Amino acid sequence: MVYTYILFSGGPMKRILLSALILLIAVTGLFAQGQGQGDDRIVIGVSFSDFATERWPNEAALFTKLGQENGVQVIVQVANQDPKLQNDQIENMVLQGADVIVVIAQDGDAAATAAEAAAREGVPVIAYDRLVKTDKIAAYLSFDNVEVGRAQARGVLKVKDRGRFVLLGGSPTDNNAILFRKGQMEVLQPYIDKGQIEIVADQWVENWDPANALKIMENILTATDNKIDAVVASNDGTALGALQALKAQGLAGKVPISGQDATLAGCKSIVEGELTMTVFKDIRKLTPLAFELALALAKGEDIRQKYPEIKDYDLADLTLDESFRGKKVPCYFLPVVEVDKTNVYEEVIKSGFQPYDEVYRDIPEDQRPPRP
Questions:
Q1: Helix segments in the chain, DSSP class H
Q2: Where does the UniProt annotation locate this protein (predicted)?
């Protein structure tokens, strides 16, 4: 069977492709379960928080593809943003005979319970791009999330370094959102201390939902009488939701706003002059690395020896919660790239991460860069 690493965008085609992908993964998962008895192949479980975020279906497809190519059973399950369901699914993966489980946590605190239970059964858990808050995980694989926040603040400050700023954080249950905010404030605080910047609103967006971001921004604009100068948003989805509210008030392209993930919609908005910047995290490197780590753990290999990039971090520093002080977690962090209109072509388009034709679809041909 041939699998394609699809970067989903919006519209009816997204819904068709996504429905097909979910069906494909469901069938694959059932096949893996059915073949579990008497089959000595390695079994890797992958527990996704949701498929609402653009990137997760892509990574599910890639995990499945890597399993097919390497003779590994991959069981993918999606929790639909329900922490309890996710824990039940993780427990079920242990019962199905998973050798390793990769977890994209909906709630890093809640998922710790399931991760600890899996560890007691001898099943290692890899926290994938979202921290599971326990020192019982085998590894935490992600990007430099504090640097993501720094890049977001820097990107906005390049355009506007004084005035009334809005902070739009991610889901309060996602530890990454806390780390992004830490990085943002490291850059913004000196400007606040000097009186150059005033934070007029500081909100968190439940489930990273663009619709929630839209409502929040509408309320902020009403409360401030549209008197805002910049928005530090924590990913492309929330930024684009907020941009809808800014557009309605004629402020799109006038108020700088940050994003993250270099999504198709985000990159398209950048070249159209609305979204100011995004942070490119090359997830094409993250999924294969997670698969390799899972394979090594399943074989009983020493991942620290095999991957010298893995370093121990204190959970207190990763969560900004001192109650975790002294508990260590093996971490592997990949670098990130700050992207705006000046380098989106070089960093994102030429590398093949997003398609040229889609990103520049609404840009006149004589204003586009050359086709890669």
A1: 12-34, 55-70, 83-95, 108-120, 145-157, 175-193, 210-224, 236-248, 264-271, 283-298, 303-306, 315-319, 344, 356-359
A2: Cell envelope
C-alpha–C-alpha distance, residues 184 and 149, integer Å: 4
- What does the alpha-carbon distance between residue 270 and residue 58 come to, in Å, rounded to a whole number? 22
72-82 pLDDT, tens per residue?
A: 999 999 999 99
How many whole angstroms separate alpha carbon 271 and alpha carbon 364? Answer: 11
DSSP structural state of residue 304: H
Tell whether pTM > 0.85: no
Domains (ranges, CATH) in the chain? 12-144+282-335 (3.40.50.2300), 146-281+338-367 (3.40.50.2300)
Q: Which residues of 222-246 are buried (b: 16+ CB within 10 A; e: fewer)?
A: eeeeeebbbbbbbbbbbbbbbbebb
What tokens appear for 285 in the block?
């490197």
